[in-house]
Write a sequence for this structure.
């Protein structure tokens, strides 16, 4: 009897939650039209946020979308540097990051002052700056890249040596694909960097017939054991095209939502339970609705910084 009551209570709670969520989704849809807004979400966002977004993608795809959209407001469901990139590319639009505290510890490993000191040690060496960096650091760099185009960008730079900031693991991965000399900044993404090669070995023992796909922000010893290394969009493509029915995923676990949706016939396993980026999880439907209602927290970039950072981003977008 008590068991039945508990079950009924649980059912009612779920029903309430579902109707609360449906009401929020409707509110978001109405506000979006009223604000002439577009909602962009990174592949690491929580499932519900991915579901209400107009576009879900990797850093490179999102920067292209931000540059190309004709809406008046961009609600950026991601982290601070991504919203800043949207503000750099679309100065006439209102860019809102639903959670002000959604930052990137990797981007925080470098400041303009520290970059300028490094540049002084290597005069005339161009700076290739990973998109996971502040607008100010982009402004002090020659060209940006994302993990989807890093090797192409380094190849396109007209110099045999480049300073690559701020991710040393991505720098190492690019170094494997170019004869140019890469001087890496010593930053890393805490979420990817803590995945160990032993975890790859254990996952392979558990799922011997699965392929392993990891992000290049993983440390080299881990990435070397994978079958595939690539950006989030490259991992999605690999999983659509591989002959393996099972894939072990070595990037932030938010990507599992799209992977399962796009590949109903395949099985996915997360390489490590540590693959959670807390900053990417700060955004939820309530905050998206509030962002649309208040148009806050707004992300802006001072004009001088914006103009210089834009050059670095435009040089990246021009590389094919
Ligand atoms: P992608 O560009 O591959 O989506 O990666 C972004 C990121 O922040 C990885 O941690």
């Amino acid at each position: 009897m008590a068991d039945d009551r508990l079950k009924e209570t649980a059912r009612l709670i779920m029903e309430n939650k579902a109707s609360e969520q449906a009401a929020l989704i409707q509110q978001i849809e109405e506000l979006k039209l009223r604000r002439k807004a577009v909602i962009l979400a990174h592949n690491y966002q929580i499932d519900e946020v991915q579901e209400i977004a107009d576009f879900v993608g990797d850093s490179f795809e999102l920067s292209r979308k931000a540059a190309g959209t004709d809406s008046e407001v961009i609600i950026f469901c991601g982290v601070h540097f991504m919203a800043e990139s949207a503000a750099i590319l679309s100065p006439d639009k209102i860019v809102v990051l639903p959670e002000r505290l959604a930052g990137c510890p990797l981007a925080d490993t470098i400041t303009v002052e520290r970059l300028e000191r490094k540049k002084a040690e290597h005069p005339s060496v161009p700076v290739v700056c990973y998109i996971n960096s502040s607008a100010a650091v982009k402004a002090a760099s020659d060209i940006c890249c994302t993990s989807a185009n890093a090797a192409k960008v380094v190849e396109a730079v007209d110099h045999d040596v480049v300073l690559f900031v701020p991710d040393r693991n991505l720098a190492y991965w690019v170094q494997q694909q170019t004869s140019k000399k890469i001087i890496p900044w010593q930053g890393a993404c805490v979420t990817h960097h803590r995945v160990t090669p032993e975890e790859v070995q254990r996952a392979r023992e558990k799922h011997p017939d699965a392929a392993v796909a990891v992000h290049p922000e993983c440390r080299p010893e881990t990435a070397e054991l994978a079958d595939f290394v690539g950006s989030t969009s490259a991992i999605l493509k690999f999983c659509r095209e591989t002959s393996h029915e099972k894939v072990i995923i070595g990037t932030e676990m938010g990507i599992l939502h799209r992977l399962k949706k796009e590949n109903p016939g395949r099985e996915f396993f997360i390489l490590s339970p540590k693959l959670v980026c807390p900053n990417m999880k700060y955004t939820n439907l309530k905050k998206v609705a509030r962002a649309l209602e208040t148009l806050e927290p707004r992300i802006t970039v001072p004009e001088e910084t914006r103009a210089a950072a834009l050059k670095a981003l435009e040089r990246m977008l021009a590389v094919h």
In short: The CA atoms of residues 105 and 228 lie 25 Å apart. The pocket of 1,3-dihydroxyacetonephosphate is lined by residues 43, 58-60, 132, 146-148, 189, 215, 217, 231-232 (CB under 6 Å). DSSP finds 15 helices and twelve strands in the chain. Residues 195-273 form a domain with the Rossmann fold fold (CATH 3.40.50.10800).
